[in-house]
Amino acid sequence: MAGCPRVLLIDSYDSFTHNLAALCQRAIPDCTVHIIRNDQLSLEQVISVLPYFSAIIVGPGPGTPDRDEDVGILKHLWKISDDHLIPIFGVCLGLQSLALAFNAEVRRLDVVKHGQISRIYHDDSELYEGVGDVHAVRYHSLHVDLTHSHHLERLAWADDGEENGVVVMAIKHQTKPFWAVQYHPESVRTSGGGEDVLRNFWRSAQSWTSAHRQVLPWDVKLDTLVGNPWPNLLSSSPPQVSTTVTVKTHVIKELCLSVTDICEALGVDSDSTDFVLLDSAAQPGRFSIIGCLDDLSMRINYHLEEPDTIKVTQCGRVTSMPLAPHDIWTWLADFMRTRRASGGDEHLPFWGGLIGYLSYEVGVANLNSTFPPRAHDSSFPQHPDVNMVYVDRTIVVDSFTGQVYLQTLRVDDDAWFTTIKGVLKSHSHSYGRQPEPIKPRSRAKAASSDMTVQLPDRATYISRIRQAKEYLYSGDSYELCLTAPSRISLKSTKLTSWDLYKTLRKRNPAPHAAYLRLGASTLVSSSPERFLSYSRPPGVVCQLRPIKGTVRKGPGVTRAVAEQALVGSPKEVAENLMIVDLIRHDLHGVVGNDVTVKQFCSVEEYHTVWQLVSVIEGRADAAHDHHELGWEALRRSLPPGSMTGAPKKRSVEILHTLEVEPRGIYSGVFGYWCVSGAGDWSVTIRTCFKHDPHREQGCATGNQRQGHNDAGSGVNDEWMLGAGGAITALSDPEAEWEEMIVKVESVLQAFEEAHSQHV
Ligand SMILES: C=C(O[C@@H]1C=C(C(=O)O)C=C[C@H]1O)C(=O)O
Ligand SMILES: NC(=O)CC[C@H](N)C(=O)O
């Protein structure tokens, strides 16, 4: 054998591929893995590199093995001539394509299995020698029938009883070095049938190789064909910066002002200025971050419709600049590189930096999908896809200690500390004010005549759920997060967006809440879901906290009841598990091997719902532990898997056909990227937003613009509010409709209450 073993992993556009690569590196000592897509190289090109590889792994994927677009070169791979033969291990779609190549039949399961764990029976030989009990996770709609295949042998099976009977779970070819499993050895919940089985494959592969072939030493020129070895991390360290800014911090110990009081002291009520608040309105959130913006604050806008231009607004002037040679990600990385800072309070999450949002479509753009064009809906407002402001003066409130921190990145800014302390102290008379009691409310009722709510059409939504389920039955997706927009129109309203936020904060306090007023876009959020946080270097830890599984709170729905309904439900756990595995893959793609599931399916309590939450963390090796790692993690893992389903790319493409309007701000992320290298991004859900074209220049100070203050002037407002939920094969369409409505209501209730107080 020439040097360390090299494995070629063929990916069929799945969302678990990097998990398989990581498993492979655990099971096969010192192995190097190269990942190629199933349609990346021609068969001839693949054959030309085989002499340098020790084995191939054919990964899972959406679709069916008899559709060429789904399997690319796979169907030819199993038929390569004997002089090119190489040991191959197939997983799921990999098994199915092997079976099809040797006359087995591939059929739909009667009851599909997505994210479900089955006991796997085996005869303890070959792949299963010494493996013992196997409980494995399955993600499949199709299965194989070996009756007419005389070359394949069954090695393992599951017994689905009345549902599907006995289902083949592992096979081997009788004469060629081909083995495959139907379940997912790389899933975090597979026990027994993962690493040990791959190790046994490797042993069999080695003994076959020693009798049949020689592996050639690696030639670096081949990297141009099969790419760099996995993990393909970003370059070791970004360009060094010579100067760093120093953060200055002042602490105010006994201010006795709430987060909303502080915002009001800063003039949030005057709707004519930009304003940013990232608010921990409930635990496990702790810090609230308030940006102190002025004319100098730089707002950065990017529209996917104008992909080559970036707009920077400062002092009321808009400068359009060509993006080239950058894309939006590298442009922002460049922007932040020159603004790196040190010396801030180690306990604070944010010292200053970019605050804003990224749309769902910005994430989708990274997937390289091609979509049929949508009919342009002119009533759909064109928010920027990236809308951020560079915040260099901040107030951070620690809700645990009550301490308030003032921070600036500007030099010689002592005068600002003095002024802002004065402003805050003069407002602290509100200390001691009792919060208004929150009355429990019944379900959202018809709004008053000057507030109209246009919910998604029930019949259409339910028919889309049914269509989504067809895709799940056919093997094209394992889970689809279907969503739909609602519209809330307010006529002659005196309700400001800030009033609305304050009510929402009371009505539905959330750990990842926000109030962002950035140019024409205003976002009012009660998001319960962290998408991604990354700590400042050294020792960057990336953490994702996907939520999947929702139960409405109500009389009698205690924690025990919710736990039974969530943790006790195979459907809910499967829904969550699929996203956990998807996120492990996303994170493995950024940090390499060190990815762990810190919490699996815990029930967390929110104001209106119980949710099933998992926590996944990843750490990079020392060479990649730097300022831009977190940003790269964000770029590589958008859009949030919990908002797409799995596999991500195919699911996004399917959702594009099921959902008629772009999601826009909804389903993207909002949060910050700190000058220290840290960042924290929430999933944009339980969030409403509106577009005021007259606010386009947004960073003007209050006295510069008149006549367009939505407070008090009796204007018309149109708000959008997206909501949805994960559809799985086990979904009951009526229950999914209800779940979507529960999520709409969690925000709508605040509208009703706030509106009734401002008519
Ligand atoms: C789609 C939404 O929520 C997502 C779907 C969830 C689910 O299916 O249980 C839970 C949280 C979010 O990831 C939404 O709130 O609109
Ligand atoms: N996980 C997979 O590879 C799934 C294979 C195939 N699309 C099925 O659903 O059966």
Automatic annotation (TrEMBL):
<dbReference type="GO" id="GO:0046820">
    <property type="term" value="F:4-amino-4-deoxychorismate synthase activity"/>
</dbReference>
<keyword id="KW-0315">Glutamine amidotransferase</keyword>
<dbReference type="GO" id="GO:0046656">
    <property type="term" value="P:folic acid biosynthetic process"/>
</dbReference>
<dbReference type="InterPro" id="IPR006805">
    <property type="entry name" value="Anth_synth_I_N"/>
</dbReference>
<keyword id="KW-0808">Transferase</keyword>
<comment type="similarity">
    <text>In the C-terminal section; belongs to the anthranilate synthase component I family.</text>
</comment>
<dbReference type="InterPro" id="IPR010117">
    <property type="entry name" value="PabB_fungal"/>
</dbReference>
<dbReference type="Pfam" id="PF00117">
    <property type="entry name" value="GATase"/>
</dbReference>
<dbReference type="InterPro" id="IPR006221">
    <property type="entry name" value="TrpG/PapA_dom"/>
</dbReference>
<protein>
    <recommendedName>
        <fullName>aminodeoxychorismate synthase</fullName>
        <ecNumber>2.6.1.85</ecNumber>
    </recommendedName>
</protein>
<dbReference type="InterPro" id="IPR029062">
    <property type="entry name" value="Class_I_gatase-like"/>
</dbReference>
<feature type="domain" description="Anthranilate synthase component I N-terminal">
    <location>
        <begin position="274"/>
        <end position="406"/>
    </location>
</feature>
<dbReference type="Pfam" id="PF00425">
    <property type="entry name" value="Chorismate_bind"/>
</dbReference>
<dbReference type="InterPro" id="IPR019999">
    <property type="entry name" value="Anth_synth_I-like"/>
</dbReference>
<dbReference type="GO" id="GO:0008153">
    <property type="term" value="P:4-aminobenzoate biosynthetic process"/>
</dbReference>
<dbReference type="InterPro" id="IPR017926">
    <property type="entry name" value="GATASE"/>
</dbReference>
<dbReference type="InterPro" id="IPR005801">
    <property type="entry name" value="ADC_synthase"/>
</dbReference>
<dbReference type="InterPro" id="IPR015890">
    <property type="entry name" value="Chorismate_C"/>
</dbReference>
<feature type="region of interest" description="Disordered">
    <location>
        <begin position="431"/>
        <end position="450"/>
    </location>
</feature>
<feature type="domain" description="Chorismate-utilising enzyme C-terminal">
    <location>
        <begin position="458"/>
        <end position="743"/>
    </location>
</feature>
<dbReference type="GO" id="GO:0005737">
    <property type="term" value="C:cytoplasm"/>
</dbReference>
<dbReference type="Pfam" id="PF04715">
    <property type="entry name" value="Anth_synt_I_N"/>
</dbReference>
<dbReference type="GO" id="GO:0000162">
    <property type="term" value="P:L-tryptophan biosynthetic process"/>
</dbReference>
<comment type="pathway">
    <text>Cofactor biosynthesis; tetrahydrofolate biosynthesis; 4-aminobenzoate from chorismate: step 1/2.</text>
</comment>
<keyword id="KW-0289">Folate biosynthesis</keyword>
<feature type="domain" description="Glutamine amidotransferase">
    <location>
        <begin position="8"/>
        <end position="201"/>
    </location>
</feature>
